[in-house]
Amino acid sequence: MTTQTAGDQQNLSEYNRSRTLQYLYHHGIASRAQIAQALHLTPAALSKISNHLLSSGAIIETGPLEGKGNRRSIGLAVNTGQYRVLGVKFARSLIQIGLFDLAGSAQAVWVDQATDYPTPAEAIDAVKQHIRAIMRQFTNIVAIGMAVPGPYLRSVGHTAVVSSMRQWREVNFKAEFEHAFDIPVIIEQDARAGALAQYLFDPQPRNENLAYYLLGEGIGLGVIDHGSVINGALGTATEIGHVSVDVHGIPCDCGNVGCLERYCSAVAIHDLLNEDRTIVPDSPALTHHEACIALFELAGRGDTRAQEIVRRIGTYVGYGCVTICNAFNPSRIVIGDIVAEAGEPLLDRVREVVRERVLPELVESTAIELSTLPTDAAVTGAAAVAIMYILDHPSRFFTPQTVHNATTNHNNQER
Amino acid sequence: MTTQTAGDQQNLSEYNRSRTLQYLYHHGIASRAQIAQALHLTPAALSKISNHLLSSGAIIETGPLEGKGNRRSIGLAVNTGQYRVLGVKFARSLIQIGLFDLAGSAQAVWVDQATDYPTPAEAIDAVKQHIRAIMRQFTNIVAIGMAVPGPYLRSVGHTAVVSSMRQWREVNFKAEFEHAFDIPVIIEQDARAGALAQYLFDPQPRNENLAYYLLGEGIGLGVIDHGSVINGALGTATEIGHVSVDVHGIPCDCGNVGCLERYCSAVAIHDLLNEDRTIVPDSPALTHHEACIALFELAGRGDTRAQEIVRRIGTYVGYGCVTICNAFNPSRIVIGDIVAEAGEPLLDRVREVVRERVLPELVESTAIELSTLPTDAAVTGAAAVAIMYILDHPSRFFTPQTVHNATTNHNNQER
């Protein structure tokens, strides 16, 4: 998933170090011989790369694999304990900050109500102060990943005009954060960050065709196709929340009609509960998240009207899955964030809709699951963005203790 | 766009030869230094690769670039005249076979009416005989590309259950064709083949975020995102024809409801003309293609009812473009095949719908165009599939005249 543009010998070395780190990150422990074979590198080239990464502390040796005894069969692994990253997740009403090790384990999570601040500018200032305080308190924080709601225009740095994000629209995330600290800050659309988290932190490395379907205050999607994130020209691909499921349906602030987001996002559910106060009477006093949880709890206690609403939400979430199958054909769709907390009843209805509307061959080969990442999964995606950046740019973070002379003569390093 | 699985030194060499060929194919003429820089290869490694490709006739030297005079600034280019390929396009009612050089120029095109044969099996036999006759008549044909309507299940070899392809459903294209001749046969979904053709044969190499929107008897889509084709797990991604634009709309044989294909494919248009015979009275006697052309000609002559129908078709084609923008965010959508022959009036309406329904930032950055490939563009896609295979597997087609010893010691080849 590395993107390289300029190319010289220095870049080539960095590119191959990054590929080696990424391979090890996904496979846990591997020998030099296994890595060289998988990455189409000669043993000599891989030996040079692994020496550099070992000497800089980016990787460690884990001992012999399968008792072969020679140097090429010693296990290598990423040194995930050396550094920490921060993940920051922005949603309409919530800002979460998490401290993570490089394995993606949360060490602490803080939550701010964005709505406590009169303006986005004040919320942004508070986030900056909070991050600085965390960086004073904890050592070895080397990068910050941020997850923002889509459509996020990557090159420009701000989100496009959509209903559920109006308050953040005036914020240029790149301008605000990119140079705010003395460590790199990387900003990504939230569902794509979630897909990266599923891809990086899945305990059993599986297929590389994965869709992360984010059902939060907005609805987003991140898709990894054969190991590559689908980005689109401006970084606004896979905006499932603004794909229409009904060209004659409810108008959306994005300009489209019948956007999925208008039917099954936490905001749409909260709107529904505010219109009909007989279901969750104190709905207007609740946050979007609290209102959804109140509905799901009612349904869980057997309230038939709440169950009907959950079923209707599941139907629309299912329509979205049908589109995801036909548009992206992933082998796994992971459903996460607020609306996923409706749990099995929602998932059952989603699977039912998919069975009704998707080609049988695709139904059989597409797993649809609820996210198994911990409850702070939202902010975990932001951390994944930072970790992916480190794996992509190892030399910015890891400096060898003994400097090797990076000549083009491979024989110097051969053993 | 190379997919490599096993990995040893032999594969590594082939992989780098393929990358070099692909770079040259896209850039026309480049120096060794330019290629080495772009592909992250050392000058020594690139020199070895280019010697191999020159010696096998895969590439040629075109003379000095920018008068620098040294060997590394001599232009290299793919030798597109050495071989020819066949492209075979299957549609519901038509089978087209084209003979192409490696630059993608058609040298001859033959058309069979599939409906002339009582069964698909007999049509398949006729195609095989036709291909064998062409191979006897013309020399240097080294590969055959085939384009079949989607959803095409790549690993299994047949198309999935959908209305516009019922007659082909029982045909296993892989089993029928993969070993039918003594040259490789490569089978691809038709719209993806069309996207490859746009990508390979575009006279001005442009951005690498391209969608080819095939409006034929069926509706298909092929998307290239940052230089990679989006395939999905089974090869059935980007099936825009079966993405619903109206979950309460017309049921489709694929199981879904409101599939785009039911509103603006050539088959849907022909169905409409057969229902209301007052527009094109002899419609039932025409092929799908002929019926559409008759309608477009009426509209062109100022028939207001025909114009209204073209406008309605453009509206639905536009809804599809809106979904393509939100799902794939390409920088260019190329509209091709039968329905594209409606020309500018259709394109105007499509652009109007996109302006109404897509975020302004995306409208500005997404070009929507009619295909500029020659009228036999359909079969050109099939040829592109064969040519891409050759670029991916150079050693199966090009053998060096002087055999180089492929040791890992680069110094042998250094100059």
**Ranges of chain A with pLDDT <50 over ≥5 residues?**
1-8, 403-415
This entry's quaternary arrangement is homodimer
Which architecture of the largest domain in chain A per CATH?
2-Layer Sandwich
Total tally of structural domains of chain A: 3
Q: Span from first to last CA of chain A?
A: 30 Å
Alpha carbon gyration radius of chain A: 23 Å
Family (chains A, B): Belongs to the ROK (NagC/XylR) family.
Organism (chains A, B): Bifidobacterium pseudolongum
Protein name (chains A, B): ROK family transcriptional regulator
Pfam families (chains A, B): ROK
What topology does this entry show?
Two copies of one chain form a homodimer.
Chain A: H1 9-27, E1 30-31, H2 32-38, H3 43-55, E2 59-64, E3 74-78, E4 84-90, E5 94-101, E6 106-113, H4 120-137, E7 141-148, E8 152-153, E9 158-159, H5 173-177, E10 185-189, H6 190-201, E11 210-215, E12 219-225, E13 228-229, H7 261-264, H8 266-275, H9 288-300, H10 304-328, E14 332-336, H11 344-357, H12 360-365, E15 367-370, H13 377-392
Parallel strand pairs in A: 4-7, 7-10, 11-14, 14-15
Antiparallel strand pairs in A: 1-3, 2-3, 4-5, 5-6, 8-9, 11-12, 12-13
Helix pairs in contact in A: 1-3, 2-3, 6-13, 8-9, 9-10, 10-11
